[in-house]
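Title: Comparing notes on inverse folding

I've been comparing how different people in this forum approach sequence design from structure. To keep things fair, I'm posting one structure and asking everyone to reply with a full sequence. Here's the target:
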């Protein structure tokens, strides 16, 4: 999946947790994208079996979509914490950098970071 697809899936996941229901306009507002851009992305996510779109426009993650969203969010949160812990950067800087890194990090490196975080918890 491309970086933008991961961003959309993660955003839908987080908005669903926060608001309960999610529509394309919510995603557009959250990401600062145009409605046509979000509409196109929603179509691609739907074609790939990651979301469904209800009659009323509500976006729902499929089982595969939810699995993907949770994985992307796990990378994002762990990387944010890791950067704050090891680089001593602010939450805002760590958050922005984690958002970029989460799309390119190898599974091996991410496993190593999770292992490091587990071994150095609260030190």
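Reply #1:
Here's my take.
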């Amino acid at each position: 999946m491309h970086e933008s697809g991961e961003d959309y899936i993660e955003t839908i996941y987080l908005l669903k947790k926060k608001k309960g229901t999610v529509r394309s306009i919510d995603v557009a507002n959250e990401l600062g994208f145009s409605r046509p851009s979000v509409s196109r992305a929603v179509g691609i996510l739907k074609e790939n079996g990651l979301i469904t779109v209800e009659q009323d426009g509500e976006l729902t993650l499929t089982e595969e979509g939810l699995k993907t969203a949770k994985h992307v969010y796990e990378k994002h949160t762990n990387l944010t914490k890791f950067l704050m812990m090891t680089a001593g950067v602010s939450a805002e800087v760590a958050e922005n950098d984690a958002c970029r890194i989460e799309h390119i990090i190898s599974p091996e490196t991410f496993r190593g970071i999770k292992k490091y975080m587990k071994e150095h918890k609260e030190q």
